[in-house]
Amino acid sequence: MKVTKAEIVISAVAEAQYPDDNLPEIVLLGRSNVGKSTFVNTLIERRRLARTSSQPGKTQTMNFYRINDRFHFVDMPGYGYAKASKTEREKWGKMIEKYLRNRENVAMIFQLIDSRHDPSEDDLLMYEWLVHYGLNPMIIGTKADKISKTNQKKSLSHIAKSLNLRSSREVILFSAETKLGKEEVWEHIEKVLK
Ligand code: GTP
Ligand code: MG
């Protein structure tokens, strides 16, 4: 998809603020600092639409971006952000959970996992929770430019194995640096938007 229009609609913290234009929503989930906001920017080729940071905990609200007036990307706060207070983390957790369980616009979920490491406990819990509610996410292994080709293969099978996926082909390796995976991700998005 050629992105000709990309704009922030709202940084929401509550249901009443979700956009009401009824567009399909494509959701980004993952640990803090895994590269969710960068993933959005890379896909739409806008370097700074979604705010990113080398410090975890950058995104603290549910950010809705309207793309080509066709769909929204919903960039979520990361889970497992250690520096946030327990109350804060619980608040974000509830906000995300409420959104995922009630929002009818959800067309697709990308769960991002750092391809350099085995999925964390939080990653596994999130994944299982999503599957339990029938919200099967598509798994993205991020920061693939930081590992060698050999380790990329290993990483794919590690992630697939930890999540009990049928095959490592169900994981897409992604890099904001080399754009690895970008076209494949767009193909999936276009398929669900049809
Ligand atoms: P929170 O908003 O805190 O939940 O984090 P996030 O998941 O949105 O991560 P963000 O996109 O802000 O990226 C975190 C850091 O990882 C930034 O310094 C990015 O530049 C870096 N990063 C993201 N994707 C890639 C990638 O594909 N390759 C490399 N080398 N760095 C990346
Ligand atoms: Mg972010």
Describe this structure in words.
- The protein has 194 residues and is of the alpha/beta class.
- It has a single domain, classed as P-loop containing nucleotide triphosphate hydrolases (Rossmann fold, 3-Layer(aba) Sandwich).
- The chain has 5 helices and 7 strands, in the order ββαββαβαβαβα.
- It has helices at residues 36-44, 86-102, 121-132, 149-162, 182-193, and strands spanning 6-12, 25-30, 62-67, 71-75, 106-114, 138-142, 171-173.
- The chain has a 7-stranded mixed beta sheet with strand order 1-3-4-2-5-6-7, with helices on both faces.
- Strand 3 and strand 4 form a beta hairpin.
- The radius of gyration is 16 Å and the shape is globular.
- The model has no long low-confidence stretch (mean pLDDT 94).
- Residues 30, 32-38, 52-54, 56-59, 77-78, 142-143, 145-146, 175-177 line the site of guanosine-5'-triphosphate.
Task: Please provide a brief summary of the model.
The chain is α/β, with parallel strands linked by helices and 194 residues long. It has helices at residues 36-44, 86-102, 121-132, 149-162, 182-193, and strands at 6-12, 25-30, 62-67, 71-75, 106-114, 138-142, 171-173. The mean pLDDT is 94.
